[in-house]
Amino acid sequence: MTKALVTGCAGFIGSHLTQRLLNDGVTVIGIDGFVDNYDVAAKLRNLAEIGNRPAFTFHSTMLQAQRWKDWLDGVDVVYHLAALPGVRNSWGKAFTDYVSHNILATQFLLEACAQLPKPPVVVVSSSSSVYGTMQGTFTNENAPLRPVSPYGMTKEAMEQICLVYVKAFGLPVTMLRYFTVYGPRQRPDMAFHLFFRKMLKGEAVSVFGDGQQSRDFTYVTDAVEANLLAAKHAAPGDIFNVGGDREIKLIDVLGIMGGLLNITPQIVYQTGPVGDSQRTCADITLAQTRLGYHPQVSLEDGLRQQLADIRSQGKGS
């Protein structure tokens, strides 16, 4: 691989992936429309972290602009991370935006790739939200898709449109279902970022529900590695879970965070919002055997690095 296109390159995972590719000697075309679902200043900081590099060309525009001739020229791999994230904001009138950014923009990309004489490999970022609340043991990729939010539904529809293009055109598309990615540059509206900021200020942390909900947390550099492995080893139509080192209850995560700060977190419990899954837990056996994916960063180490990043930004006291 010599040239890659990264959509959503100024975002959380996208900026880390872009940096990794550049460090590996890959020429990168980056696109980001700076959707204002959270503070755009955070995305600008991410771009600053990438820096001005000769091998990096950045386009500040939406995928809906469809400037594919410029964006896809000579590209070997497309990493499609651009999307409108967030479960809780996907209800009501906002759903139209989720359809536009998560489904329609993906279809535009796939259609453009399918028209090329030699289509690039396309690695698409999906979400564990397609599963909804998981039952029983760890969930593998054959589990029923039962999203419990409009956001999760758009991610499921995005996967389906990808499979349609695989079947119709043989387009080399693979999908990665991330399980709650965290780490430096995490979106400021996400739980770990909010929790650390509150704790650093000596304020109480708001927890939706009883804190017994469990998650499988994935450190951002592990998510990046999964993208690179998928580009090399996945077959058209493959779907992989991308998870962390273990499932853990939210209340126990808060205990780890408090330990890093040498405090006992103050917790205020609130009614859980509609659309939140009670449990997500990844069976990553398929990614391990087919891609060679193995999470390298423990939750404790990952939280320590995220805390250091937040402190370096002066976001806490």
TrEMBL record:
Belongs to the NAD(P)-dependent epimerase/dehydratase family. Residues 4-243 form the NAD-dependent epimerase/dehydratase domain. Pfam families: Epimerase. This is Nucleotide sugar epimerase. It comes from Brevibacillus reuszeri. Coiled coil: none annotated. It comes from the Bacteria. InterPro entries: Epimerase_deHydtase, NAD(P)-bd_dom_sf.
